[in-house]
Amino acid sequence: MQVDAIPLALRYKIQYPDEFINAIKRGEILATKCKNCGATYFPPQRDCYNCGKNEMDWVKIDNEGELMTYSIVFQKPQGFENYDNYVIGIVKTKDNISLMVWIKGEPKVGTKVRLTTDGIRLIGEVIK
Ligand SMILES: [Zn+2]
């Protein structure tokens, strides 16, 4: 099936901090944690929405979580046309952080997944 689409041109580049990018290259996922109130943010935030302070620590996200929901992507966005169908899921970690990740393995709501990266994107591997 062919669907007409309007080409999407990105106008803005998002600048992620080096700490975050370097961690992904190592297979780790980082969040920020407020030094004042302890609120944790993913994606990382510079300012705390809870208390208004702006002093954050980098913290490693627990690498195990639960698959809350998922979607199989048949109609790929621009730049992903040549990919096989893939699965995007929302995983919630034990420390209550929700992440959107690519799911590897047979997806099932409620199953445990191991969070990692492939050096570029976040991956949730279904644990059998
Ligand atoms: Zn705070």
UniProtKB/TrEMBL annotation:
It comes from the Archaea. Residues 23-53 form the ChsH2 rubredoxin-like zinc ribbon domain. The keyword Transmembrane does not apply. Pfam families: OB_ChsH2_C, zf-ChsH2. Residues 58-117 form the ChsH2 C-terminal OB-fold domain. Keywords: DNA-binding. GO terms for molecular function: DNA binding. The keyword DNA-binding applies. InterPro entries: ChsH2_C, ChsH2_Znr, NA-bd_OB-fold, Thioester_dehydratase-like. This is DNA-binding protein.
